[in-house]
Amino acid sequence: MKTQQEIKQLTENTLNSLDGLKQLEANPYLYAKILNRMGQVRQATAKHARLMFRLSMALLLILFINIGSFFMLNKFQQQPVPHISSKGKMKPTTGISTVGEEFFPKAQSYSY
Question: Which label site among 2, 62, 82, 88 has the fewest CB atoms less than 10 Å from its CB?
Answer without folding.
Answer: 88
